[in-house]
Amino acid sequence: MLKVVVGHSNDPDSELAIAEVLQQCRDSLENRVPKAGILLAAIDFDHSLILEQIFSVFPDLELIGGTTDGEISSILDFQQDSLILMLFCSDSLEIRAGIGLNVSADPVIAAKQAVETAKTALASAPRLCITIPESLTVSGVSLMEGLKQTLGVEVPIFGGLAADQWRFQQTHQFYQNQVLSDAVPILLLAGEFNYAHGAASGWYPIGQKGRVTKVEQNVVYEIDNQPALKFYHRSLGGIPPSMEYPLAVFEQEIMADGQHFYMRSPTGVYDPESGSITFFGDVPLNAIVQVTETSPEQILEASQLSMQQALNQYPGQEPAAALFFSCAGRRQILGTRTQEEYQQVKACLPYSLTSCGFYTNGEIAPLKLDGETCFHNETFITLLLGDR
Asked: How many other CB atoms sit within 10 Å of the CB of residue 150?
């Protein structure tokens, strides 16, 4: 049986916050011993102290985590400057942590290191990967591609890039009792369990589609052999590119229905002379793209759609837990309405579901069931886990 518990504190004092979180977890565990955990923490906590306290109570825990732009749980709903610990107990589910270091030097080698660290301790092949990697020193797409190369594209990857409350200075990743940066921590899950996911943004394409004809990683120079800025102006009537108007990037093999795309959000940096636009994520050469727009209501509806997609696809009776990865850009746009995202999610559920999540600098998940993993911006990801 899969048992998942969560502790959540918004106490600003690190020692008091982790004491409260651990007490909540112990009360819910009812003397069970957890196998693995995920720690989500605001940037200003004393992370070393927090990890020391966790491992004094659970010395054999397989743990990963990272810093956030905001936190969500079934205990305190949406919070900022808070601390969350989710713990997993199961006899049939294997969970192992791995770590890759110095991702800025070579993200593929770091990703391979993380997978091999975790995989060697598994008795069976991994079926799912969860990651909370670095976001500021390396391309999130490169990290994701490195994980896919090592795991194989058939293993779905879920997660979000660590954040630092929109400061863009330094994020932290957690692996066992270590506080790291420039790293990629992962959990590999193997054995008997059910899962399902949903991914929705709330942005909708407008204007004409175009093809990316000149790009260097996350800087798009030309679309349809014309400056990218001109493509944006044609769709938006001169409004400059911003995270309110991201690009939809369509998957080539399922373009026919016009619905399956992932998002690339502009950073706000563009060059009027060359017409280039910089995005929060790499854009493939020859990708079919389209400018999108949204409203706060549509953003909020997407979080509910993400949960509903996951529930509709879930193969079991009731999931044991949910994990959420939502974009920090969504939080910026929603402002004081951010708390409504989790309220929309809860409205889908006739029962209380143990859950946690955070606002990320980029989301990782397949676009669809059995699809290949993609790197997203401006998207709300739901992952459900439970017994088979």
From this structure: 19
Q: In one letter, which amino acid is 346?
A: K
Q: Are 352 and 290 in contact (CB under 8 A)?
A: no
pLDDT of residue 268: 92
Return the half-sphere exposure (C-beta side, CA atoms, 13 A cut-off) of residue 261.
28
Tell me the residue type at 319: P
Alpha helix stretches (DSSP H) within 185-243: 228-236
Q: How many CB atoms lie within 10 A of CB 257?
A: 7
Which candidate, 138, 136, 137, 100, places its Cα nearest to that of 116? 100
d(CA 373, CA 378): 16
96 and 118 Cβ atoms separated by less than 8 Å: yes
Let me know: does 190 contact 261? Beta carbons within 8 Å: no
The count of other CB atoms within 10 Å of the CB of residue 106 is 15
- Residue 230's pLDDT is what? 95
Pick from 129, 168, 228, 222: nearest CA to 362: 168
| pLDDT score, position 255 | 41
- Pick from 240, 238, 237, 329: which is nearest to 276 by CA? 240
DSSP 62-98: EEEEEE-S-EEETTTEEESS-EEEEEEE-SSEEEEEE
Q: Which one-letter DSSP state was computed for residue 318?
A: S
Do 136 and 66 contact (CB within 8 A), yes or no?
no
The per-residue pLDDT for range 322-369, each reduced to its tens digit, is 999 999 999 999 999 999 999 999 999 878 999 999 999 999 999 988
For residue 200, the surrounding DSSP H or E stretch is: strand 194-200
At residue 177's C-alpha, the angle toward residues 342 and 52, to 5°, is 90
Range 99-117 average pLDDT? 97
372 touches 338 (CB < 8 A)? no
Classify residue 77 as left (phi > 0), alpha (psi -120 to 50) or beta.
left
pLDDT at 210 over 90: yes
Contacts of 59 (CB under 8 A, 6+ apart): none
Q: What is the pLDDT of residue 13?
A: 98
Q: Band of the pLDDT at 254, cuts 50, 70, 90? A: very low
